[in-house]
Amino acid sequence: PFVATLAARLSGPLPGADAQARFSPRPPRGGAFPRQAPPDARPAAALILLYPGDPLTDRGPEGPRLRTGNAWHLPLTVRRADLPEHAGQISLPGGRIDAGETAEAAALREAEEEIGVDPSSVTILGALSPLYVLVSRYVITPFVGVTDTRPHFRPAEREVAELIEAPFASLHDPATLAWGHRTREGYLIDFPYFDLDGHHVWGATAMMLGEFLSLLHPGLGPPPRPGTSGT
Fold it and tell me: Of 127, 128, 132, 226, which residue is least crowded by CB atoms under 10 Å?
C-alpha cells in the first residue's frame, strides 16, 4: 500500500515550488527563491531511493524483541571535504546529465557510481519537481525509486566520506526539524534542516526531501523561524 500510494501521488499534481520553498534558507541567495531555472542552467538528476532496512526492535526483559516489520530507509552521502562543489555537504546520490542521456538514466548511473546501487534492482516510481540551485547553476530533477531489498552499498572513496542510511520515519518526524544559522557571503542566514543523529541535512537536499515528504504529509514543514511568526 505504501509504494502504491507513493506512486499514485507522484503521478498526480506535485507539491512543487511551494513545498521546496518551505525548506529553503532565508533569505534566499539573490533575494528571492528561484522558481524557474535560467536557459543556461546545467541539467542534473538525483535519486531518492527507498529500501527496506533492518527490523526495528525494542529491548525487553529477555532481550531485543521485534517492534515493527522492515522500516523504509533511504541513503544520503556526506561528500568529501576536498571536492570542488558542495564539499562536506550531505547529498542525495546524483550529478550532471551527460549528453544523450535521460534524466532517469543519469539518476540511476550516479547512484551506481557513488554508492554502488545496481540500476536493474531499482523500480522508478516517478519524478519530483525540478529544483534550480543557484550556487552551482544546476537544475536537478529528483526521481523516487524503490528496491525490494537493502542494496549492497559500495561508497566511492573519491567522492563519498560517509554513507547515511536514514530511516524514512525520522524524516517525517517533526522533532527532527530545526533551524540553524550561518554566515554566507557576509550575510547571516537562517536555514531549516533535518537532524539525523547529528547530521544536519539542509539546502538543496532538504528542499528536495521536503517536496518528497509533502507527497504524503502535506502540512510538514520546519517549526516557526526564531524571531518570526513562522514565515
Answer: 226
d(CA 121, CA 114) in angstroms, rounded, equals: 16
Per-residue pLDDT in tens (0 to 9) along the chain, 231 residues: 889 999 999 999 999 999 999 999 987 766 556 677 888 899 999 999 999 876 544 445 555 443 344 589 999 999 887 775 666 789 999 999 999 999 999 999 999 999 999 999 999 999 999 999 888 889 999 999 999 999 999 999 898 999 999 999 999 899 999 999 988 767 788 999 999 989 999 999 999 999 999 999 998 999 988 766 555
- Residue 36's contacts (CB-CB under 8 Å, 6 or more residues apart) are 132
Residue 81: partners with Cβ closer than 8 Å, 6 or more residues away: 87, 88, 161
